[in-house]
């Protein structure tokens, strides 16, 4: 009787909302894929008929024949176009990662300053945010490069900072480590330290759930990783040899040199994106009810403890979604590197296009890389957002 009643209560599949929802999504995806296939087939046919050109990526194995000013991997004029694009991809990745890290730190600081009761601190943050949010990024990058980094003194008159660090029209030269024979082994030790730090953090988190006193997970994670790194450093022969820059003639030798173009692009993206992140942080903090602050004060927490333990963890649930958009914008805005002469993926892709004439192939590769960066960033931020969101009963 119960089975008969259940079958009578269940609507037929063509009236079931769940089934209709799945079918409609399948139909929409099919239509989109069909249109894309039609447009692609039409484009390939038109290129072959009108211009005698077939889409292929064989040119990537040809010799590039042009120089690239900055490269994180070995590259020369005899390298292939594929290697040249790989250089551009790594340069873009480097800019995106550094930009995201420092823009986040500066944006959080500005967002907190914007809420300060100190008039001067509040106004400084407000003026900064209002200025940089209302200036076009391309204009800012060109001005920033021309007015600041391209006006630095000659190497002989370089600005010297502790380290030593030299800042001149050749870029910024800083001390840097050169890998030795034991560097490969040391990287394995660092990986083990990273895994061990994660295990320690997980155990401490479980302990905190049982005792009700959550430890400083980030601090213990870093301490564990650093301790393993220090032990591995002294257990092995020196994994890195520190080289410091020195002024020699009309240039510097030793260390690592970051070019003017790189510094102009990264700092420009940081100060621009930080203004938007600051407003996101301010909105997130203000979304936390006043009662939470009052409760924290009643418990005897200091202002810093209230912000770190009570306000900011709750504000993250509001901050993370728009913050993800700012990370995506920063990564895509790095394509403006061509305006300051930095060899990112788009700039090297443009040079490849000029030499090969393979517009569709080159731009499809560039779009694919930026799409991969964006989807990866979105996935990581969405996973983190799922972990910190409120769980409804």
Distance between the termini: 33 Å
Low-confidence stretches: none
Query: Can you count the beta strands?
Result: 8
Shape, please?
globular
Question: How does this model look, in words?
Answer:
The protein is α+β, with helices and mostly antiparallel strands. The protein has 12 helices and 8 strands. The strands form 3 sheets. Strands 1-2-3-8 form a 4-stranded antiparallel β-sheet. α10 packs antiparallel against α12 (359-388). The model has no long low-confidence stretch (mean pLDDT 86).
Short description:
The chain has 393 residues and is α+β, with helices and mostly antiparallel strands. The chain has helices at 2-9, 17-51, 81-114, 119-133, 137-147, 183-211, 217-235, 260-286, 290-298, 303-333, 345-356, 359-388, and strands at residues 159-161, 165-168, 171-174, 176-179, 240-243, 246-248, 251-253, 256-258.
């Amino acid at each position: 009787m119960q089975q008969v009643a259940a079958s009578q209560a269940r609507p037929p599949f063509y009236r079931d909302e769940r089934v209709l929802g799945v079918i409609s999504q399948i139909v929409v995806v099919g239509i989109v894929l069909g249109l894309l296939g039609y447009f692609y087939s039409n484009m390939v046919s038109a290129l072959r008929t009108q211009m005698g050109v077939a889409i292929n990526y064989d040119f990537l194995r040809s010799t590039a024949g042009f120089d690239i000013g900055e490269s994180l991997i070995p590259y020369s004029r005899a390298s292939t176009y594929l290697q040249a694009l790989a250089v551009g991809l790594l340069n873009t990745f480097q800019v995106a990662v550094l930009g995201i890290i420092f823009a986040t730190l500066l944006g959080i600081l500005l967002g907190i300053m914007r809420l300060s009761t100190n008039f001067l601190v509040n106004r400084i943050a407000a003026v900064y945010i209002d200025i940089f949010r209302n200036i076009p990024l391309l204009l800012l990058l060109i001005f920033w490069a021309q007015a600041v980094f391209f006006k630095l003194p000659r190497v002989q008159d370089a600005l010297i900072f502790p380290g030593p660090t030299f800042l001149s029209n050749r870029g910024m030269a800083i001390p840097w480590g050169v890998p030795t024979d034991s560097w490969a082994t040391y990287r394995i030790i660092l990986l083990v330290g990273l895994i061990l730090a994660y295990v320690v953090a997980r155990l401490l988190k479980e302990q905190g759930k049982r005792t009700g006193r959550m430890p400083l997970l980030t601090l213990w994670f870093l301490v564990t990783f650093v301790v393993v790194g220090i032990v591995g450093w002294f257990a092995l022969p020196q994994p890195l040899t520190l080289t410091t820059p020195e002024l020699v003639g009309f240039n510097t030798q030793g260390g690592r040199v970051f070019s003017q173009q790189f510094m102009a692009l990264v700092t420009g993206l940081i100060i621009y994106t930080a203004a938007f992140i600051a407003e996101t942080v301010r909105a997130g903090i203000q979304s936390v009810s006043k009662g939470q602050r009052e409760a924290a004060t009643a418990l005897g927490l200091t202002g810093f403890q209230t912000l770190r333990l009570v306000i900011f963890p709750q504000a993250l649930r509001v901050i993370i979604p728009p913050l993800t958009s700012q990370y995506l914008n920063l990564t895509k805005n790095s394509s403006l590197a061509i305006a300051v002469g930095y060899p990112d993926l788009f700039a090297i892709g443009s040079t490849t296009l000029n030499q090969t004439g393979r517009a569709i192939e080159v731009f499809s590769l560039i779009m694919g890389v930026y799409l991969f960066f964006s989807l990866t960033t979105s996935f990581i931020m969405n996973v983190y957002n799922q972990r910190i969101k409120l769980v409804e009963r």
